[in-house]
Each structure stands twice: as structure tokens, then as C-alpha cells.
Amino acid sequence: MPHMDHAQFEALWQNVKSKPMVQRAQAAPIQADLSLTGILTHYMAMAALQREWGKISQQDYNDLDAAANALKAVLVRIKDSDLVAEASRRNAAVIQAKLAKPVG
Amino acid sequence: MAQTISIAQASAASAVAADIKIDQIVLGGVTIGELSLDNTTLDINSGSASLDSVRMVLSLDFKFDWWINLGFWSDSGNSDLGSLSFALELGDVSIPSLGNIPLAVPNIALAGLEAAFAPVTSIDLGGGNIAGIAATNIALPKNGFTLTGLGFGAVNIGSIDVPEAAAAQFTVQDFHPTASIVMPSATIGPVQVPSASASDIQTTSPVSFNAAASQQALSLSLGVLGGSINVIPTAYVSIGALALRGVTLTGTVAQAILKNIGVPVDIQGISMNDIDIAQLNATSITL
Description:
By secondary structure, chain A is an all-alpha fold. Helix content of chain A is about 65%, strand content about 5%. Chain B contains no helices and 18 strands. In chain B, about 0% of the residues lie in helices and about 75% in strands. Strand 1 of chain A pairs antiparallel with strand 5 of chain B.
């Protein structure tokens, strides 16, 4: 915390003496792929670690990977990410109406 | 029959006196080359103090630390939530008593002290002016001399040197040495500085400073996600003037050392009795 001299204090005082000074948040949105495709991708990465640690067999991992890929093929056809994004926007509007504050 | 010669005016190279009396030694203005004070402690007692035109800007900085843990996926981070600053005008703030403020003072002048001076040795006065010299009843030589088979009606001698002579009394009216007597050092102490009051003390320019309080946090955990909101308060303070009223000062000096003390000397009324003069030069002697 640098020392503030009298001139700097006067400048700050002029800014806040009539009303509080607010500096807006500079937070970046949390990026998370919550589509089923994204969730399956994270899930298979976790399963690969479990296979390396011996928690699940190679055969079980192979069966799981084949099923996930089959499901992902369907999700691509129905444009899973767009469905989730549309649902997210609708939910945000409902919550915003409930809280009367910006959401999402 | 032993004879002596009376001399009205004479000068001598050296003399020894059995008794020397000095009426008065006048000391001039004393000069002190260096005064050092050891272990000086001073306390300022302020009756009251006030901080005039105190203003404060309180700023709150918010940070948000968050985490998400879904098992197969997790993430965490932190975000700057901005800040909120607002003004607080406190006006004049009165402080009833400040108590004691210890101070170190490099120099202090004190009067009416008794000093213990070190012995003065090897005094060299560097010559001087002697006024009003008078010698009475000079007899030379002091043991007398004898003349046989020689008679004079009247004799004038232009100059004579006599190895020994005696005088009944020798006086000097005023002796003013050229140089001052230098005393090596003197020590005073301990000295109790008397209580003194001072006029009100007030700063001449505003004082500004700032301070940050420790960070405070509100934590929340919802199982799969959570976080904490951190607040960092910072106070920016400006004081128009700081005034101390009813100030009194007390203190002690453990030891004061005076070095290279110079004293101009004027010695008046010197008289010596029973003087033996080793080498006497006289002119215009009449027998």
C-alpha cells in the first residue's frame, strides 16, 4: 500500500465527498462446458486416470469409451451444446425475474 | 664599612619573592568550546491536544475466491469484485491528555550551576601588559660592599649591572595577560531541569497518512461449489492541524561535560615582599 500524500488525498476526497465511489468488478466469467458432450469428455478423462491407477479394468474402460462415443454421436446430431445454451438463457431470465438482478 | 646604593628606577631580569599577595583576579566572559550532555531525558506533558479538520476516506476492496468440484471436473479461481470508497468528515477531534512524550534534546542552556573544574596545569599566559610597577627601598648589592681608601664628593654613573639586589616591597598595579587561561574540562551533573511551560504547539501543514486493516473473509460452501468474499479495508486520513496546548517540560541531565573553557584574566593589585632580584639593570644612578 503506497503512502498517499496530501495532494493525492485531496483528489480522492473530491471524488468521494458527495457520494461513494464505486469501482466495478473486473471478474471474467467462469468458462464451463455443461453440455452432455462436455460432461462425457471430462468423465472419460477421469475414467482414464482410474484405469491407470487400477481402479477399473482395461476392458471396462473400453466398453465405457465405446458407449460414450456412441452417445456423443447422437449429441452431435441434435446439437447438444446449442440445446444447453438455450436452456441456460431461459433459466437466467427466470432467475433474473425472481431476483431482479442481472444473472449469467 | 659595608655600603649600599639607592636606585630610583630599575629593571630586573628575574626575582624571587617570599610573599606574593594579589588583591583581585577579574575573570572576563567565559567561552566554552564544547558542551556535551549525556543521558538527557526530557518529558513533555501536554495538557490537551486536538486534531483539527480530520477527514477520512474509507475504502473497501472486495475479492472473491471460488471453487467448483463436480468430481469428474473441478476448477477454482479468484475475481476482483471492485471497491467501494466513501468519505467520513470527523471535524475537530479533542484528545484530553497525551501524558508524557519522551524527547531527546541535543543541546540545552542552563544557568546557576555549580561546576567542578579539573585542576589547571601548565598555564601559559603568553605575555601581557604590566602597569603601575613600584619598587621601594632597593638595596644593592643585598649583602653590601666595602670601599677603602676612596672618597667622592658626587658620582654619576650612566649604566650599571649588578648580579644581586634586594627590595623591601615590589608592587604591580595591573597585570593583563595576553592569552586566556584554558581549562581542559569540567563536569556538571546530575542536573534537574526545572519545570517550564511552552506556548501552544501547532503543526503548520496538513498531515496525511493511510493504514490498511487485516483482510476479513466470509466463506461459503454449497457442496459442489463454494467460495469466500474477502474485504480489505483501507483508511486514508488527513489531519488539517495538530495542536498541543498547556505544554510543560521536565527532565534531567545525567552529566554535562564542558570542554576547552577559555577565561580572559585581569590580575589587579599584586604586591610582593622580601624580594631577591637575580640580575638588575639600572640607569642614572646617583651616589
